[in-house]
Amino acid sequence: MQALMLNPRLSQVLPQRPVLSAALVCSLTLMLLVPGSADAATRPSGAVKLQSALMKTVGKVKCGKIKGAWLPGTALSGRYFVSHSQQAKNYKSLAKKKRGSAKKKATKQSADYAAKAKSQLSACRKTSTAPAPPQSNALRFNISSAQALVLSSTAVGANKASAKISSGSSNLAALLPSGQLQDAVSQGSVLVGLVAPGPGGKIYVWFSRGVNLEDSTQLGAGACRFAEVDRNTGVPVCIDSSLSHFGELSTGNPSVRPPAGGWVQFDSAGNVYYRGYGTPLSGASMRPSVLRRWSNGTVTDLVNSSDVRISDFQVLPDGGVLVSGSTLATGQEWLRRVNASGGLQTVRNASGLNLGVFPDGNVYWGMWATGNFGVRRYLTSLGQIEEKMWIGDRINSETPESYFKPSEVCPQSNPVCESFAGYFGSFAQTFMPGDGTVFAVAGTLFKYYPTVERVDTSVARITIAEAAGRDLILAGLDSQGRNVLVTHSTATGSETQLLSPGDEVEIYHLSFAPTSGKVIYDGLRFSDNKIIMGEIDLASRTASVSTTLSAKPASVEGL
Q1: Cis omega (within 30 of 0) on the bond before 553?
Q2: Is residue 464 part of a domain?
Q3: Residue 91 domain-assigned (yes or no)
């Protein structure tokens, strides 16, 4: 039987002629839609345009590679391809709109295509034939040897983060163990908005402009916006093409603080979670807030609404997600749990800042609203917020019960405690050295678990910090207002000065690179007014300069 192409729109036009029966309409529709037609009006729904390298013939079976998978189907002129499984869906949709013999015929066609999709799949998945080499414009990364990724906020091919980067095709550089920078893209061209390392040698990349991964010269609607890159092969796999913004609307500037769990998070099964804003519906002005899960190549919306705004989230090991946000129509703020199946549960009628999953397995949230001033913890075993606050104190007419009181830990009368005491520890950045403790920066250094206490440090005002094994790397100002950089041992409390006031450098980024066991940093060196990039050797507790940069990087991510 000759393969027939389906376009449901024709079935809506032809029945307007009153002299035609429903069965005859269906027959004419099928006769018109023959293979080889490249006209958009007669092309079947779901047909995609593929590069020649993404189409092959195995015996008598035509195959096309769609979203990373080889599928059997029909090749059309103009390099278009429609899979049998897509045609099965098309005819099933048509059958729902028909009656009598026309309905039976469309139903049979759907079943026939479904059977062909199943029986011919193994032929397309055969690997005996070597795949064609990628097109020269296909997007490929060269990051297998990188110890960090350095993102510039500049346009593609212009004003690289370092003069040492040769003219390349992206604004993303790979920092090599030698200290040299090279373009992270080896083939194709792309403008990157954000990168996030993940487990298993995977890197997650948000593109500032949508890009066709197999032909990076093709940009715009329908192109990939968010992808997973295999660090060893450099081959990207598209996750999402409909995301208009990643994270916050302001995440085009990656210096925006990521959630405690990261911009990209994972459950125990390895599924990928991320949030952002989708594409507005036709006629709508508001972008819908979305929280999505990517599992086995399928994207599922856990939240997708133009009437909510998501401020933070934390993935739980079982696939549930705690989501902090608000409803625009009512102004109500909330903390909710989205179950793995998609169901919702209100945890608290107040939003908050995720402080992370602590060693006890509970999720700690900083909140600042009536009845919730301070830090609360979500008890994962019970699926609810504990009424007794972790950090809380008397405020207004409220006298909550709490484990720790800011007025006793670090009173606001002490200038270094203003940030902590003023908001009861609710606005802090947490670090977990892996020894069952949690440290936090809220102006100065604190321990947040298993007890809450102020920790002595020579850095009077901490501006940026990073965890590296049992050490914390602290950058900021000393008591005389000079820039310093130190390592702080969480085990002993001892500190080693890495950059003294005499070597004054204003630090912009700190990022631990597990592959090399070093911490990558960049900043402004006062002695010559140059932006430098270097590394901190934790074994010798020394800092060195690798290179100078022409501009401040947008972000630095250790690998």
Answers
A1: no
A2: yes
A3: yes
